[in-house]
Design a protein that fits this description.
DUF952; 4 helices; three-stranded antiparallel sheet; DUF952 domain-containing protein; alpha+beta; ADP-ribosylation fold; about 35% strand; about 120 residues
């Protein structure tokens, strides 16, 4: 397992995380009762599939997987791909803490793809 997992975050979510020190994520996260994350090699396909036509400004957050402890669970999503999900201890659905974020970079869309230095 990698030392880092990644969160595709809207500007509003990133601002909330900085202001409050934590976030429960967006509507999908609250309805699922976990924070959706990605491994680095899953970020670009996830951006293309779910965010390509989004008009929202997006950030890519690099998260220290060790700081999420046993609340970070890798689960099979589409029958073959294992994605990281953050539930919190005993699947209690706690917010993602700011102190787990090691880097945050604004994503730019150009030439039909997203980029930032974390993806290069």
């Amino acid at each position: 397992m990698s030392n880092f997992v990644y969160r595709i975050s809207t500007t509003l979510e990133w601002e909330e995380l900085q202001k409050n020190g934590s976030t429960f994520g967006g509507d999908l996260d609250t309805s699922s009762r976990f924070i959706h994350l990605s491994k680095l090699d899953q970020v670009r396909p996830t951006l293309q599939k779910f965010f390509f036509n989004s008009k929202l400004e997006l950030y890519l957050l690099q998260i220290d997987a060790k700081k999420l402890g046993d609340g970070l669970i890798y689960e099979i999503v589409d029958g073959s791909s294992s994605f990281p999900h953050f539930y919190g201890p005993s699947r209690s659905f706690i917010p993602l803490p700011l102190d787990a974020v090691t880097k945050a970079e604004k994503l730019t869309l150009s030439d039909g793809g997203f980029s930032c230095s974390l993806l290069d």
